[in-house]
Amino acid sequence: MILSSHSPASADPITDVEFAQAMTKFGPFEPHPHLAVAVSGGADSLALTLLANRWVKNHAGSLTALTIDHQLRSTSTQEAHQVQQWLAAYGIKTVILPWSEEKSGRRLQEKARKVRYQKLEEWCREHGVLHLLLGHHLEDQLETVSMRAEKGSGIEGIAGMSALVEKPYHRLLRPLLSHTKSRLQATLINYHQSWIEDPSNQNPRFKRVTLRSKAPKFSPAEIHSFGQARRHHEEALNILIPKIVIPFPQGYAFLNYQAWSQLDLESQLGITQRLLMTYGVNPYPPVRESLYKLAQHFQEASSPRTLNGCLISRYREKYLLFMREPGAIQHEIELSDPTNTIPLFWDQRFRIHLFSPLQGHHTLKALGQKGWVSIKKVLEDQEELLPYPVALTLPSIWQQDQLVSIPSVFKIRSNQTFTLFQENAIKFLPCYPLTRFTFTIA
């Protein structure tokens, strides 16, 4: 564990007034807001935590610091407890979330980042915390924009990180994006607070570390203009999407192909990306080249394509069908008394509430081809049902190899061996909505 020294500050500390102005962009907040802040022990997140603690006290709220003990370094557990001890001196509660699973294979840093967000967001969802603060600062934003520019990102990518990101159960807030790292360090020095230096921040094997050694490609003013362009682009998409997209609560949508094909390229790619993010499950959008190839394909051919966990196909000439890729659904949840009445989140897109306990051991999984064979002969008005490929992706309950319960969207004749889910038991709840709050500039 490497602790920083209290060397003289090279910049001015961030004041409470400045931080309050940054938080105002995310308001209004509910009475007595409860904030969670992701804190690693580095200068960025520690400064954010201390600033947020002063802010939340002025708003009669509460603050919980969340620290991931990633166990990638031998000192990680010691560092997590050091952070907990530091913050306890300010009256800040710290929850340590360990990542104890086996860690191996390639791209371990990328996997660690994914697990970190997953654990932070799961904690917020389980505890009803609506606001999760992250310590990204101006240099992080500059690096993000430079990396995305190298990859040829479009309007949305090159704008960098949004100061506010809406999630199904909470929001990600980045109030420090317009402040430099030196000012965050100066803030801690002003508090007489040490911090932990992560040795991986000096490892040239990582792309971000290499970028930090170079002069920034873009100025803060240019990044601000990129953000403005993205916001205007997203506002236009929010207007266009309800006009040419028909969403269904069973987790699929029709895109009016003729109307879409007459739009400019950026609007075509933007709408396609939104559909892929809503009906697929990947946490990041596909690269621009893949979006462009997909758009080109349907201008020249009609065969189905898969991308980002989605299946895209022509439907009755007029539409493109966007839905979850059936073959990519691997999620199964084992159900047993008495916990199976708790609401479940299945395949990252459906919230399922069983309401009453099941007797014995059951499994929640996709209907699949085997389930479709079991029900298709007893369906009423089969032609009026949802598209056949969509049916394969819907949740169902099985007892060993026997289908037990299916969504109530299916209309079946009476006296069958399986039942329908209760009304409102299944709710489509995608991680990324089709229309959303526009890009927030720090």
What would you say this structure looks like, in words?
This protein is α+β, with helices and mostly antiparallel strands and 442 residues long. The protein folds into three domains: 217 residues, Rossmann fold (3-Layer(aba) Sandwich), CATH 3.40.50; 93 residues, Uridine Diphospho-n-acetylenolpyruvylglucosamine Reductase, domain 3, CATH 3.30.465; 100 residues, no CATH class. It contains 14 helices and 21 strands. The strands form five sheets. It has a six-stranded mixed sheet, sandwiched between helices. The radius of gyration is 24 Å and the shape is globular. It starts with a strand and ends in a 14-residue tail after the last strand.
C-alpha Rg (nearest Å): 24 Å
The CATH superfamily of the largest domain is identified as HUPs
Strand order across the largest sheet: 4-3-2-5-7-6
Task: Please tell me the CATH architecture of the largest domain by its name.
Answer: 3-Layer(aba) Sandwich
Q: In a nutshell, what does this entry contain?
A:
The chain contains 14 helices and 21 strands.
